[in-house]
Amino acid sequence: MARKERVPGDIAYSVAVGLVALLPRLFVAIAWAKEPVWDGHYYHYGATRIAAGLGYSEDVMIAGHAVWKPWCHYPVGLSGFLGFVYKIFGSSIVVAPVVNAVLGALLVVLVHRLARFCLSENRARIAAALAALHPGLIAYSAVVMTEPLAALLLVLAAWLRARVGARWYGLALVGLALGLATLVRPSSLLAAPLFVLTGGRPPWRPLLHALVVTGVCVLCVLPWTLRNCRVMDGCA
Q1: Which residues are 59's β-sheet partners?
Q2: Which residue has the higher pLDDT, 95 or 5?
Q3: What is the reported pLDDT for 53?
Q4: In degrees, to the nearest 5, what angle opens at C-alpha 165 toward C-alphas 160 and 207?
Q5: Which one, of 199, 232, 213, lies nearest residue 1 by Cα?
Q6: CA of 54: how far to CAs of 15, 23, 49, 59, 185, in Å?
Q7: For residue 65, what are the β-bridge partners?
Q8: pLDDT at 21 over 60
Q9: Which 8-state DSSP code applies to residue 185?
Q10: Using an 8 Å Cβ cutoff, are 175 and 217 in contact?
């Protein structure tokens, strides 16, 4: 990947397309916000427990009494993130969708910044515009699901790789972003070894970079795994 953008700047377009992306997402988030259902119910429930200082847990009834019990029914990443947000803004049904709208707008900005490394100025703008106006990405603002946050973290990892290059601290940041993405959506872990395809010579260098990124990613997830080994019936 290139070490710096072909055309420095174009920040104004990034800001503009981010604002264009934010407006329809905010409308959908506010107009379509409803009580979370299916997976969203559990992400929201886990977040409310974390915000209340109860950790990732549930209450079970034993002999007619509610007993605190650790929980790992779903990945902790989204619930942990929303728990932090709920602690500040409360847990009303509109909070998570509005957060999704902001995440979606930031994703569009990162799409544009990432595209500047490998596309012409106009093509990068088109890529960002398509992401800004994609109906599916807009509609996802209204649901409490992992896709918006996971997508943002994956694109952030790719942008960090392009922006910082092969510097060791940059590789660590890439691994951190992918580790957080894995805690949100576990299949994101599969993206870490793919950084071997980002080029560079001699041939062993991209392999080493991919190993570093994967190692940092695994270290980010390890505390969650150890916690589950300690408090649950088995490791998860």
Answers
A1: 68
A2: 95
A3: 93
A4: 105
A5: 199
A6: 38, 35, 5, 10, 22
A7: 62
A8: yes
A9: S
A10: yes
